[in-house]
Design brief:
alpha/beta; TIM Barrel; eight-stranded parallel barrel; globular; binds flavin mononucleotide; NADH_flavin_oxidoreductase
Length: 337
């Protein structure tokens, strides 16, 4: 979709699955680490989302952990137990008071965490291979049973988000967390049906999304399913654009509501395939039918127009953290009524 008029990014958009947004702007998932030590929602969480979701069409609440062993950082939001539901309900209501839709991002960190964040819980991963950065432990490889347990934790978390009144969930398949670890050949050395060929490495996220689609059918009402991915890993033999374009295509076939790209800059080209000068967002737009969200470095009015030419949804992170009135100012700058 090419937006020809500036004002279109400020107009309504229907993503399907009940996500009718008042405009094309999204508060990107942000783990602000404002929750209690047990992950319950605080007044500071509510205040942050009240002020930052006011002007955008969609607020994706960042990094809610589906199991304490998969927490990415201290004081992140929890969705791992029934006790999390009352706080999450207040959070969803707070966002809805702004006529903004609310999606909860579900995460399991896999090997990309530490015992401080997991409060001593065993750190797990697809295989016993540590992340190639200082300070990350060697994870315990998931057994067959443990793989299904983690998948069930995601399903239970999505069900809790629905009962808390969220309009959908987004799987955090980006930033080197567990779902990405299954897709990446450098973190997944499994020899069962979840490792080896590309088809097998994609199996965990695809099976999970298929099960979530079945769960949503059982709700008998609209509920959105988004997926966020990092398009490529910048390490030797890491997950490539070919891998993630294939993943996007299969997820699209599963019926995801939107695909979200985690980028440093919304207009960046591939670092691992320099021969292609086509921007990464355009490559993904070519392989999926669902709406795409692009984020990374949208800071000014011209950036907004530029990003709006590339994808349906424009994710804003840092600019809105710094200034809750950022979108109003951009609107004025662009002379939109
Ligand atoms: C403080 C902070 C926390 C973040 N937490 C998350 C997160 O929980 N989940 C996620 O997918 N991305 C997270 N991100 C990445 C943002 O969603 C976004 O993709 C990135 O900041 C680029 O957009 P920007 O240039 O508008 O900030 C975080 C970024 C920041 C600055």
């Amino acid at each position: 979709m090419i937006l020809l008029e500036t004002s279109m990014v400020f107009s309504r958009i229907d993503l399907g699955a009940g996500l009718i947004l008042k405009n094309h702007f999204v508060l990107t998932p942000l783990d602000m680490q404002l929750s209690r030590e047990n992950g319950q929602i605080t007044q500071r969480d509510l205040a942050f989302h009240r002020s930052r979701s006011r002007d955008v069409g969609l607020d994706v609440v960042g990094s809610a952990y589906v199991d304490l062993a998969g927490n990415t950082a201290p004081n992140s939001v929890a969705v791992d137990t029934e006790e999390a539901i009352p706080g999450l309900t207040q959070l969803a209501e707070t966002i809805h008071q702004n006529q903004t839709k609310a999606v909860l991002q579900l995460v399991h960190a896999g090997r990309a965490t530490n015992k401080g964040a997991t409060q001593g819980q065993t750190i797990i991963g697809p295989s016993s291979i540590a992340a190639p950065f200082a300070g990350f432990p060697v994870p315990e490889a998931l057994s067959d049973r443990a793989v299904s347990k983690v998948m069930n934790q995601f399903i239970d978390a999505a069900h809790r988000a629905e009962r808390a009144g969220f309009d959908g969930v987004e799987l955090h398949g980006a930033n080197s967390f567990l779902l990405q670890q299954f897709v990446s050949p450098v973190s997944n050395a499994r020899t069962d049906k979840y490792g080896g060929t590309l088809v097998r490495r994609l199996r965990f996220p695809v099976e999970l999304m298929t099960r979530l689609t079945a769960l949503v059918k059982s709700f008998h009402h609209d509920f959105a399913l988004g997926y966020r991915l990092s398009p490529e890993e910048l390490i030797a033999d890491g997950m490539s654009l070919v891998d993630t374009l294939a993943l996007a295509r299969v997820l699209d076939d599963c019926g995801i509501t939107y695909l979200s790209l985690s980028l440093r800059n919304y207009a960046q080209t591939s670092a691992t395939m320099p021969a292609t000068q086509t921007e990464i967002v355009t490559l993904f737009k070519r392989v999926v039918h669902c709406p795409v969200m692009v984020a990374g470095g949208v800071k000014t009015g011209p950036d907004v127009i530029d990003a709006g030419q590339r994808s349906e949804l424009i994710g804003i992170g840092s600019a809105l953290i710094k200034d809750p009135n950022w979108l109003k100012k951009v609107r004025n700058e662009l002379n939109v009524d």
